[in-house]
Fold:
Amino acid sequence: MTEELKFCPHCGSPVTVDDVKCPQCQTDLSVFRSDAPAPKKLNLNALYSNPYREGMKRVHDRQGNKPAKHRWRWPWSKESR
Structure:
């Protein structure tokens, strides 16, 4: 919510731009004024099909590194490695 707050979202009393807490109910207004990005949507199909793989994708996304793609091959296949 990047818009300017004119009223307290908890009690509805008027607040100014300089207020850190609501003068009426003492609610912290900095939470409502933060520029936090929207959370990423959860892909439940991928999570239910293979929770370990989905969790590792999220770990690698947070750390910023990309794991090498592993191509599974049949042990008796004649493809070069």
Observations:
- The chain is about 30% helix and 0% strand.
- The helical segments are 30-33, 44-49, 51-63.
